[in-house]
Specification:
Order of helices and strands: HEEHEHE
Structural class: alpha+beta
Largest sheet: 2 strands, antiparallel
Length: 86
């Protein structure tokens, strides 16, 4: 088995991912979005907030509502709020 190197990783080769009807993004773009989302999770956990990562969102409609410029796009939505009382 050949060891995996950074040079032949999906992020380095520019492999593209189709995201359910939205624009195609590279592995690098997807990884950057996931890291940002993870940071939101960590912040919420430290502040006693709840969050959920949502990929099933109308990305084009949300992008228009946010008035994103060309080259900007929605990768996911992440809802943040107070957890339900137990």
């Amino acid at each position: 088995m050949k060891p995996h190197s950074l040079d032949d990783s999906p992020a380095s080769t520019g492999e593209r991912i189709q995201n359910e009807g939205a624009r195609t993004m590279s592995r690098r773009e997807m990884n950057a979005a996931l890291i940002a989302g993870q940071n939101v999770y960590l912040y919420c956990a430290s502040e006693g907030l709840a969050t959920v990562f949502r990929g099933a969102v109308d990305q084009e409609k949300l992008g228009r509502a946010m008035r994103l410029d060309d080259g900007q796009f929605v990768t996911f939505a992440q809802t943040v709020g107070y957890p339900a009382a137990s």
